[in-house]
Design a protein that fits this description.
By secondary structure, the chain is of the alpha/beta class. The longest helix is centred in the middle third of the chain and has 17 residues, at 415-431.
Length: 762
């Protein structure tokens, strides 16, 4: 019987080279540490890490101890290793693989507990401050929020009984109306179009809670505004998802001008969970060379440009001269000015250096809104010790006002990496999982720590002009190192279904190559009923994408996510890892939800009517679940009657009279078969924009076409002509591929990168 041990801190068992063999096949070790001893009679699976004089060599050799109570030596399996190179011997616990079919399915939960809590309605009046001639943005904001709007000449005239959630006010009228107005029930957003080269007045920016810079020349204006509003109003919280990932990385853009990064930004971002904007490395062309700090005007334009071209969260960093940056340290208020403005601009992560006065760090934490604070500490002396009391003090001080503590030190020995792992384990044991600790060593000797760190590891890319710090690795190099150490074993992944139904398999293989993942991906036909069971029970099985999806009640899938159970379909099989059972998942509903929230905040759908057309309930179930997660109101069905767990609240259209009873749906979804796809067109025309809507109201309308294959007619074209915001199946496929890769290999591939390749893939 094998014993599965909890993770414990690896510790040296042999540290004196005189005990190491020269030509023997065994390594003498002292008694096994008490923390690693299992109950009598049980064997234990361990990894034997042999630390070499050459720090680039670090193999992990699996060893089984049948009698751990009396350890005199360890037999090393045959391998091509020069034993004279050993420096020390370490034990790392290794969890024995369990049968993926040995788990029992989780019990089904009521539908209300399965679907995540719908996004909350805005609790404050959103006041949009605009310049003369730019009042159109007020209506755009209202459409994105799905709320009525109006304009006022003074904040004091805001009507208590008004149903307008969005209120516009001229910038010239704002100054005189701030005094005496209530601040707790409104959010002031200064909006400014930069197309004429202007920039907001500092006093106006300071008087508002947030600020949105935009260009009407950009095709990404609407989506950029949606992302901004979603974050500052708490509609989306990207950190909530990232903090639960097993591993997160971020790419640092070291360009003096973001324009230079745009052609390759999609490729640069593969494997990254966030993008760092190194503000101190930006070079403002309008400033003197003697002034190393770019102007706020230039930084704001660069941030706007970066956010328009990536859906990844942004880390806003102002690095000082002492910590390998360019911001002068003699003016801490300069840091506050830029970091405070970044919060106003709706940046997801704010990097705050620990040396800044506590008063400034506290003010930033108090005013952060929905931004996440990363405390940053760097030591370039080369004498830093992770085992010193100073390291613990630095963490405690950093944790006061931060959600993530980042500690980075220059080291000169490979042993410093193991000291760091000891420190990391101690912090987790004494302080718990939060705040998150991101700790790495700089320099060539510290590269091992970059592979072992799992929280926001800074990575580089060959296409960047320079690395942001000594010893930085690419995402591919980190994956290669993890594979060599046995932390990223090779798995066999599968695309199950006909080649035509699994076209993303070719794209996924390219992603594996780009990220240097050791896995293989094989496309196979569905085959007989029991063929899937034969695949998923293979010891090397690493997961599968299944198209068309299989039933969630498939007997050979031991556990099913609650979403997949409610939808009734499994399109992704996640392999058993780290004590979790083999799991059936549904990625399609997340792809649909991500598509629907590109141009509207999630709460815009709350309580609104929806119509779904489909030939069967199974074809529509993922869309129903996605809409329910957005809190939609009544859902009307055409072409099918629901009887499964999602049937509650669905109302079938039975006649033309039924159509007339629905005044205006907010969203129409078509999952009709290709030969019947044109049947949705009369509905799109019937609910076309009438032009009779009064100025204070807004009626957003979304059409989502999920039909696969060659259609009859052009429903998307008809929808666009009728005033709908329309999305096709390609958008959903791209978002679903993003989610599938996250589930199968834990790596992030940006939507824009997937979409860029869609002409060749989907």
């Amino acid at each position: 019987m094998s014993l599965s041990l909890p993770p414990v801190l690896c510790r040296p068992l042999v540290s004196n080279p005189r005990f190491l063999p020269v030509s023997s096949d065994s390594v003498p070790v002292p008694d096994l540490p008490r923390a690693l001893r299992p109950p009598g009679g049980q064997s234990i699976c361990l990894n034997l890490a042999l630390i070499f004089s050459d720090p680039t060599l670090l193999p992990l050799i699996p060893v089984r101890l049948e009698s751990p109570e009396n350890v005199g030596g360890l037999a090393i399996p045959p391998c091509d290793i020069d034993h004279t190179a050993y420096r020390s011997c370490w034990f790392l616990p290794s969890t024995p693989p369990q049968s993926p079919l040995s788990r029992t399915p989780s019990a089904a939960l009521p539908l209300a507990s399965v679907i995540q809590t719908p996004p909350p309605e805005p609790t404050h009046t959103v006041v949009i401050v605009y310049r003369a001639g730019q009042d159109a943005i007020v209506q755009v904001v209202a459409e994105i929020l799905g709320k009525p709007w109006t304009t006022e000449t003074s904040l004091s005239t805001l009507r208590k009984g008004s149903n307008a959630v969005v209120v516009g006010i001229l910038a010239d009228d704002l100054a005189g109306s701030l005094e005496g107005s209530e601040k707790t029930d409104r959010v002031l957003i200064n909006t400014h179009c930069v197309d004429d080269g202007s920039f907001p007045e500092e006093s106006l920016s300071d008087s508002c809670n947030y600020e949105f810079l935009y260009s009407l020349r950009s095709p990404f204006f609407r989506r950029d505004l949606t992302r901004f509003l979603s974050l500052i109003l708490g509609q989306t919280r990207p950190h909530e998802d990232l903090k639960t990932k097993n591993r997160t990385n971020f790419i640092s853009t070291t360009f003096p001008d973001v324009h230079a990064a745009l052609p390759n930004l999609d490729i640069l971002s593969v494997g990254s969970d966030a993008v760092e904007l190194r503000v101190d490395l930006l070079v403002d062309p309008l400033q003197q060379a003697s002034d190393p700090v770019p102007s706020l005007r230039y930084v704001g334009q660069q941030l706007m440009l970066l956010r328009q071209h990536t859906e990844l969260p942004i880390i806003f960093t102002t690095r000082c001269t002492k910590e390998n940056g360019k911001f002068p340290m003699d003016d801490p208020n300069l840091f506050y000015k830029y970091l405070r403005r970044a919060i106003q601009w709706g940046v997801e992560y704010i990097d705050v250096e620990l040396w800044l006065p506590e008063e400034i760090r506290k003010r930033l934490a108090d005013d952060r809104g929905h931004s996440i604070i990363m405390s940053a500490f760097h030591d370039f002396s080369g004498t830093w010790k992770w085992t010193s009391p100073e390291a613990t003090r630095i963490f405690a001080e950093s944790a006061k006002y931060a959600d993530i503590v980042k500690m980075i030190a220059m080291v000169n020995t490979v042993e410093a990496n193991y000291e760091l792992e000891y420190f990391r384990s101690t912090i987790k044991e004494t302080c718990g999982p939060y705040p998150l600790l991101s700790a790495v060593n700089m320099g060539q000797m510290g590269q091992l720590s970059r592979a072992l760190n799992t929280v926001f590891s800074p990575i580089t890319h060959p296409l960047l002009p320079m690395i942001a710090a000594p010893g930085q690795l690419t995402a591919a190099e980190i994956n290669e190192a993890l594979h060599i150490m046995g932390q990223l074993p090779k798995h066999d992944l599968y695309a199950i279904g006909s080649f035509r139904s699994t076209p993303q398999s070719m794209f996924m293989e390219k992603c594996f190559n780009e990220l240097s993942l050791p896995h293989t991906l094989t496309s196979i036909d569905r085959g007989p009923t029991n063929s899937i069971e034969r695949v998923i029970t293979q010891p090397s099985f690493g997961g599968a994408s299944v198209h068309p999806p299989i039933s969630s009640s498939t007997a050979c899938i031991p556990a099913v996510s609650e979403a997949a159970r409610a939808i009734g379909l499994i399109d992704t099989i996640v392999a058993a890892r780290e004590g979790s059972p083999l799991m059936g998942e549904n990625a399609t509903w997340k792809g649909i939800r991500a598509t629907l929230t590109r141009d509207y905040v999630p709460s815009a759908y709350r309580g609104r009517a929806a119509i779904i057309l489909s030939g069967s309930e199974s074809e529509a179930s993922a869309a129903i679940f996605a809409l329910r997660s957005l809190g939609v109101g009544a859902i009307y069905t055409v072409g099918f009657r629901a009887s499964g767990p999602l049937a509650e609240g669905l109302e079938p259209f039975t006649s033309i009279q039924s159509v007339k009873l629905v005044e205006q749906p907010f969203v129409i979804v078509s999952a009709l078969p290709p030969e019947k796809s044109l049947l949705v067109q009369p509905l799109l025309r019937h609910y076309r924009t009438s032009g009779r809507a009064s100025p204070p109201s807004t009626r957003g309308k979304v059409y989502l076409d999920l039909t696969r294959g060659e259609r009859t007619g052009d429903p998307v074209g008809v929808a666009v002509q009728a005033g709908w915001t329309a999305y096709g199946i390609d958008d959903v496929n791209a978002w679903t591929t993003v989610e599938t890769l996250r589930l199968l290999v834990g790596q992030n591939v940006p939507f824009d990168f997937v979409r860029m390749a869609s002409g060749r893939v989907f």
